[in-house]
Design goal:
heterodimer, A: alpha+beta, Glutaredoxin, Glutathione S-transferase Yfyf (Class Pi), Chain A, domain 2, B: mainly alpha, 2 domains, 4-stranded mixed β-sheet, disordered C terminus
């Protein structure tokens, strides 16, 4: 049986949880408490040395990178029709996922943490928090947590994140004004991957992701939220353990090119 | 950028590319491995061909490479590989096993998101920047202003005015070192990047590592990275690789010959 190591059903973890439910795969859920830094434990780093959630385990093979896990799930369950067979459509699915990852995932990390993680971390014992962050063995992850603990989000960083969100949302708005889904005439993993980020950003960046500026995106979000698989993930007490909405630092913004 | 539906399925693909290197190298090698006949459209990055109106009318992002096939225009090099494999006859470049496919794509992401940008930053600071800096300053300024994507504009500005920071270059060198260790570990476990067969992951990795035994000789050699060197020998021995380097016009492609001599065994006839 598949095993999923995940945190709260937001962002990357939401993506893969939704896809598992969409394809109807049986899986064992392992909740990893990211605010207790369990993703940096020795055991977890054996599953993913990069210290990122979620991880999907099939037998002895531990797989990571949420968009790629959804490609794996969709291809392993062709009957789910979440991975188009046509090479042009498949290219578009992969390119949408990449575009969303490149611009939205890093920006949700910045904007979501600034708004929701900073106040949560302020309630922690600061000396202990500092010690825990200092011991994060992955430099790229450590930098994101240091920034959140210090509330160190300068204007340039925030403006750049907002610019990227707007770039994707505008392109999505144009695409969804012309059709129901991001690729072709069917719901696909491109929609799932974007939905998980957009629903987070509608909370983290409501001045960009809203009914007035992106009506078609918001309609599309509401339609997806009503799907049984999505409702099952977002409302299950076993998957969502926190009452508040919190984000953790995501992939870093690109350094070059 | 996304692509339109195509009508002409039988059209000969046209590939706009620069050197058989990094992003341009990926589709060149994939097409050659499949045995696909294609029109090569060499696009001189050092003359800013990709920011000229003729090119922007095909790919408004002004990035290289671009694959034009019938009505379709593809601009993302890694995903282009999957399209080429699915669309054309010839040997499969993606594994059958879904787990190996996952691993193939994981390497793609690692190369494109982590290793590649760091190697590229170093390459641009020592090769691309110096190669264009002596041009007319006004022309360079105009060229920068024409670049459509902010990220590319920032990169070119740094390369032309040589404003790389010491800290970011040091961080890129650290990442390249780390990447080399990850490659060596992966190839110690499996003969090819994805698993048991040569795939798009090997093509992608080759395009970014083929010159390392020369450029990073201290760290990439038969003693320190035996698996990486052995893998490079096996990839260099493929006829498609020899063909790909014939499309190069700068000293970059000539490095391939030197590397082959250095590591041995990969002359295609061995």
């Amino acid at each position: 049986m598949l095993e999923l190591f995940h945190w709260e059903p937001v962002g990357h973890c939401a993506r893969v949880l939704i896809c598992l439910h969409e394809v109807g795969a049986e899986y064992r859920s392992h909740y990893v408490d990211a605010l207790k830094f369990e993703q940096f434990s020795t055991d977890f780093l054996k599953l993913n040395p990069l210290g990122q959630l979620p991880v999907l385990k099939s037998g002895d093979v531990a797989m990571s990178e949420s968009a790629l896990l959804n490609e794996y799930l969709a291809e392993s369950h062709p009957e789910s029709n979440l991975a188009p067979a046509d090479p042009v459509d498949w290219y578009n699915v992969q390119v949408w996922s990449k575009f969303v990852d490149y611009h939205l995932a890093s920006s949700l990390g910045t904007l979501g943490c600034r708004k929701y993680l900073v106040p949560v971390l302020k309630e922690h014992d600061q000396a202990e928090l500092k010690r825990k962050i200092a011991s994060i063995p992955v430099p790229e992850r450590k930098a994101g947590w240091e920034r959140a603990a210090a509330d160190d989000y300068d204007e340039e960083l925030v403006t750049n994140a907002e610019r990227k969100v707007k770039l994707v949302v505008d392109r999505m708005e144009a695409t969804l004004a012309a059709g129901d889904w991001l690729v072709g005439e069917k719901y696909s993993i491109a929609d799932i991957n974007a939905f998980a980020m957009i629903s987070g950003l509608s909370a983290a960046a409501p001045h960009i992701v809203n009914e007035r500026d992106a009506p078609h995106v918001m309609d599309w979000t509401a339609t997806i939220a009503e799907r049984p698989a999505v409702r099952a993930v977002l409302s299950s007490p076993g998957l969502r353990r926190r009452r508040d909405l919190v984000f953790i630092p995501g992939p870093e913004h690109s350094r070059w090119g | 950028m996304l692509i339109a539906r195509r009508n002409a399925r039988s059209a000969t693909p046209e590939l706009y590319h620069w050197e058989p290197n990094a992003n341009s190298g990926k589709p060149i090698i994939a097409l050659l491995e499949k045995g696909v006949t294609f029109e090569s459209r060499y696009t001189d990055m050092l003359e800013f061909d990709q920011h000229k109106p003729a090119y922007l009318s095909i790919n408004p992002d002004g990035t290289i490479p671009t694959l034009v096939h019938g009505d379709s225009v593809l601009t993302e090099s890694t995903e282009m590989g999957e399209y080429i494999d699915a669309e054309f006859e010839g040997p499969a470049l993606r594994p059958e096993s879904t787990e190996e496919r996952w691993r193939m794509r994981w390497w793609g992401k690692f190369l494109d998101g982590y290793f590649g940008p760091s190697l590229s930053m170093i390459g641009w600071s020592i090769f691309v920047g110096p190669a264009v800096r002596n041009k007319d300053p006004e022309e360079l300024k105009r060229n920068i202003e024409r670049i459509p994507l902010k990220e590319r504009r920032d990169a070119w500005t740094k390369a032309i005015y040589n404003t790389f920071g010491d800290a970011e270059l040091a961080e890129s060198r650290r990442r390249v070192q780390h990447g080399i260790a990850v490659f060596e570990a992966g190839l110690g476990q499996r003969p090819w990047f994805a698993g048991n067969s040569y795939s798009l992951a090997d093509i992608n990795a080759f395009c970014m590592t083929y010159a390392l035994p020369l450029m990073q000789a201290e760290f990439v050699n038969a003693v320190k990275t035996p698996h990486l060197i052995d893998w490079l020998r096996r990839v260099y021995a493929r006829p498609a690789i020899t063909e790909a380097f014939k499309l190069g016009r700068t000293p970059m492609a000539a490095r391939a010959v030197e590397v082959r001599e250095l590591i041995g065994g990969g002359d295609g006839n061995a």
